[in-house]
Amino acid sequence: xxxxxxxxxxxxxxxxxxxxxxxxxxxxxxxxxxxxxxxxxxxxxxxxxxxxxxxxxxxxxxxxxxxxxxxxxxxxxxxxxxxxxxxxxxxxxxxxxxxxxxxxxxxxxxxxxxxxxxxxxxxxxxxxxxxxxxxxxxxxxxxxxxxxxxxxxxxxxxxxxxxxxxxxxxxxxxxxxxxxxxxxxxxxxxxxxxxxxxxxxxxxxxxxxxxxxxxxxxxxxxxxxxxxxxxxxxxxxxxxxxxxxxxxxxxxxxxxxxxxxxxxxxxxxxxxxxxxxxxxxxxxxxxxxxxxxxxxxxxxxxxxxxxxxxxxxxxxxxxxxxxxxxxxxxxxxxxxxxxxxxxxxxxxxxxxxxxxxxxxxxxxxxxxxxxxxxxxxxxxxxxxxxxxxxxxxxxxxxxxxxxxxxxxxxxxxxxxxxxxxxxxxxxxxxxxxxxxxxxxxxxxxxxxxxxxxxxxxxxxxxxxxxxxxxxxxxxxxxxxxxxxxxxxxxxxxxxxxxxxxxxxxxxxxxxxxxxxxxxxxxxxxxxxxxxxxxxxxxxxxxxxxxxxxxxxxxxxxxxxxxxxxxx
Length: 567
Known about the structure:
Oligomer: single chain
Helix content: 25-40%
Radius of gyration: 25 Å
CATH class of the largest domain: Alpha Beta
Number of helices: 19
């Protein structure tokens, strides 16, 4: 019986010098689910809930998709590269052998894995295996896989949103013909938003496995299979006809199944297969490893989640030094991903933890998003990680939360750095609560994408971002590079319905008054001729132990200045 209310947890597993992100539900022997391209593990949320009553169901993000690190072999990637990566991922989980389910693109990844590592496969399920003779036409692949190019102007958002819409309307999407029009119901906005986010998360890597699958000639590989393999397709799958292209006879242990269009019968058949081949004895108590208990990755952050009563908080760790840990709270909206360079620069001889506040990026929202619940959640993260007393660096809107945390959990804070401290009187905070967070509800014409992009981009031009007055001008070198803005847009839209909550909570805080309750030594950053730092010196004077620090524009210099202030 399906566990419809099963709790889905997210996690990362270290693989090489990168990470694979996954979603997991249930308990019992593990089964692995792989998504098609350009999707992510979000695709399999229904199956995670469906089978969680009997199994530990793990849906992974293929490298380069979702939140997983892309593969980088210095050349064009092919399906065997992803098969090898899958073997490494399953090994990193500590799983020696289990059922693996692959859908469409990932059915070929599963095939490559099963062919090379038959001893690791309890059963390989290839659902919707494409078998064109000789592989796809290179001209077709080039048109279908039109490169995803991020632009500084944000123009790519309109182009890619249109591609998302056309993916659902025509096959192939680039050839708008009468014959190619798909006779299917259009996706609702929720499904379109999920699909578009998966595409935007993959970005320029969206074609890595997708194009590789089109180039991969599967028929010769099937003839070599030694692992138990089931090639299946539902009769309403556009790839169902390829079942007839399978070799006859099939190798021993390889079978094919044509399934009725009924999804309930399809899920029943999958359950039967999992029950037959899952390891109910040797892997009945599977628990994934914790990346934060493993050595730090080189040149990149180690990402993981901290559980709290209402869900999970995404934490990004840089370094693993022995000196006092640093907690970093990024500006809002967005996530600490936008500051990875700074986190790594700070991690000279300290571990640095970037925290995505609840409602941001992949961190679960709060049921009561008040200033105190955010402060308490930060405290819970610090305590859960066993960090003891920490130094805190906060930027922009998050400085209000840092002040509230330092005031209400004083024993956990050694020193504090406030970069672009958010000090505003009651009238200004009210005005900002009205204007700062536009409604980013997804719309069919894609206007939410541009609304989000220009909100984030304009934060670099004036303060507040929507204020066109001369006194709002930020006379700085703005950070308006396309990849950085694109990342913040994606991380904001992951929770379009919650992204405003930590900002609105920050605007409830009378920072000027609360600074009087902060006992930790505090440095307040200043930048001349920048409207966002106009209240910095005023804020420093409010503190019992406060001083100002000229903020260096270069990340490496800023990290050095911050570390010197904290020592």
